[in-house]
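Exercise 7b. Backbone tokens:
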């Protein structure tokens, strides 16, 4: 349940922290399409939606799978250019020019990322070059509905036309709402980039990555970055390229990793987020959910949430033996859900209500990360 980046041979100067206006526009489109993911942006989403031109709103729905269900790598085109060291452009126009530099196969593969998810990161044949992959892609697109099927058919038939459509659409979004937002956000993102760059130079990569997110760790001995994120234990490597860190103001709670085969690895991370000070990793989260799923432990929690009990009291209440209760308590303790304290010769157990109360938000943060 994690993504790994092999950074063997990566030099310090090969790590760059740079904001991306195109990536931020992609996050803006995602927030407008999935406002429930971003409760802190409700005011901004409501304001933009209220004044959005109906024709532009319709076009926004035409290909919303590029930013709604998943975040297309097309919003980080610099990562796909030869040399794997290109940085994002300073303006949206510059970044749209970078999209034009992607090959047709790169463009199509990234645009069909959702329907081609099983092949993501593998570097195998693409729908544009392989008839069998094309057939399977269209079958998957059809399963997602007529809208995605129509878009996929148009994309495979005429990639330049879809490039032109996307470019014009993003320019219209910039004029309608994003330019105003970017004029405010770019200062925060630039300040965060400077801060992370200073940490890289003076404290090292491990400390800089820890400042990016508590879900990112660096094993310096094995030269591997691990991102605690639900996935298929995928991975990539910097190889002879670099590592790019891109901050986003609109992206919380999404911590995204670009690990497409042949592309420069990118960590796209939220800044200024209401992230918990020390959120549990996914393994601990799964442990807690499993611990609470057992009916006996659920009944025990009903008592332990109200008061502290000894093992003997719980055994008597639930009609079970003390060893049986102890085994269930051990599971709850291992998950960090129960606290214990001694009163004389008695050991009292009680549910940590604050920890349980956070489970809902931690679960959402974990699956949306």
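Sequence design result:
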């Amino acid at each position: 349940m994690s993504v790994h980046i092999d950074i063997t041979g990566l030099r310090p100067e090969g790590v760059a922290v740079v904001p991306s206006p195109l990536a931020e526009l992609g996050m803006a489109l995602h927030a407008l399409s999935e406002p429930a993911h971003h409760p802190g942006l409700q005011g901004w989403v409501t304001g933009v939606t209220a004044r959005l031109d109906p024709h532009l709103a319709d076009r926004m729905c035409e290909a919303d799978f590029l930013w709604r269900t998943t975040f297309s790598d097309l919003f980080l085109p610099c990562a796909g250019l030869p040399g794997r060291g290109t940085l994002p452009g300073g303006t949206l126009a510059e970044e749209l020019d970078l999209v034009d530099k992607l090959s047709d196969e790169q463009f199509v593969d990234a645009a069909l990322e959702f329907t081609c998810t099983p092949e993501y990161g593998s570097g195998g044949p693409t729908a544009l070059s392989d008839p069998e992959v094309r057939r399977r892609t269209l079958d998957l697109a059809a399963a997602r509905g007529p809208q995605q099927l129509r878009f996929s058919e148009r994309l495979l038939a005429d990639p330049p036309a879809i490039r032109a459509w996307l470019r014009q659409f993003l320019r219209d979004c910039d004029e309608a709402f994003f330019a105003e937002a970017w004029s405010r956000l770019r200062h925060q993102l630039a300040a965060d980039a400077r801060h992370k760059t200073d940490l890289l130079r003076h404290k090292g990569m491990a400390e800089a990555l820890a400042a990016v997110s508590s879900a990112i760790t660096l094993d310096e001995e094995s030269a591997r970055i691990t991102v605690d994120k639900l996935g298929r234990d995928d991975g990539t490597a910097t190889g002879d390229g670099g590592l790019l860190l891109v901050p986003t103001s609109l992206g919380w709670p999404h911590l995204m990793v670009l690990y497409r085969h042949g592309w420069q690895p990118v960590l796209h991370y939220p800044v200024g987020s209401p992230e918990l000070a020390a959120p549990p990793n996914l393994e601990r989260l799964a442990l807690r959910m499993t611990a609470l799923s057992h009916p006996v432990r659920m009944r025990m929690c009903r008592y332990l949430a109200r008061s502290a009990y000894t093992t003997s009291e719980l055994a008597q209440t639930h009609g079970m033996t003390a060893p049986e209760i102890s085994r269930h308590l051990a599971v709850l303790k291992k998950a960090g859900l129960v606290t214990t304290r001694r009163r004389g010769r008695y050991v009292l157990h009680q549910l940590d209500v604050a920890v349980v109360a956070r489970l809902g938000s931690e679960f959402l943060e974990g699956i949306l990360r």
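Instructor comment: The radius of gyration is 24 Å. The chain has a mean pLDDT of 88.
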